[in-house]
Amino acid sequence: MTDEQLKLFSVADAPNPYRTERPPSLTLGKDSLLQWKQRLQKFQDKVRLNPPPSQTSLIFETAPKPDHWDAEKIDPFGLPPKPWDFYRERYDPLRESQANIYFVLDHAVPLLLYVGETKLSIKQRWQGVHDCKDYIDTYISLHRQYDLAVAVNLAFNVSVPADRTQRLALERELILKWRSPFNKECWRYWGQPFQRRG
């Protein structure tokens, strides 16, 4: 074997099974961000301004759901807003084990970005690992980078079913109704421009 052939098998050039290649960190451009928000706002404005007609059963008269359990009657934008990083404060707006559905909103537009549910104190839920915190951080950072107005807040609906199955069903109805872009069920509509990179 010649010296040239030995160089082909250099240890430094050999593939390292322990090294992972990170995808390049891509930043959403200002125009793309504005277009993304406009598409989302256009969709959500239709939802807010044109509620579907209420249907009545011709066969069975069923007891109606309370308004605060009905995805068609819940207005996330009408709930009192809390700062998105409220979980860093001592005060916890909800008591321990108070089931709730919560919303991440950008009141500057307005947009509904995320719908979640928990039976934990909301502070406990947000102090731990939560991918949505990364999405919010990236979303806010991009707005600041481009000097765009942003007002991300949370709102809580504590008048929700205590039964987890019913609560999850309500959460899903709200996600699909509003197509909240930080929920994975809606990535097919809006993509994942704010996911954590590398």
What does this structure look like?
With 198 residues, the chain is of the alpha+beta class. Helix content is 33%, strand content 12%. The chain has one domain. It has six helices and four strands. Strand 2 and strand 3 form a beta hairpin. It starts with a helix and ends in an 8-residue tail after the last helix. About 7% of the residues have low confidence.
Brief descriptors of the model:
198 residues, alpha+beta, 6 helices, 4 strands, globular
DSSP summary, beta strand count: 4
In what order do the strands lie side by side in the largest sheet?
A: 1-4-2-3
Strand and helix order = HHEEEHHEHH
Label the structural class: alpha+beta
Largest sheet: 4 strands, antiparallel
What is the topological layout?
Layout: H1 3-8, H2 30-49, E1 82-83, E2 100-106, E3 111-118, H3 122-127, H4 131-145, E4 152-157, H5 164-178, H6 187-190
Antiparallel strand pairs: 1-4, 2-3, 2-4
In brief:
By secondary structure, the chain is of the alpha+beta class. The chain has one domain. It has helices spanning 3-8, 30-49, 122-127, 131-145, 164-178, 187-190; strands at residues 82-83, 100-106, 111-118, 152-157.
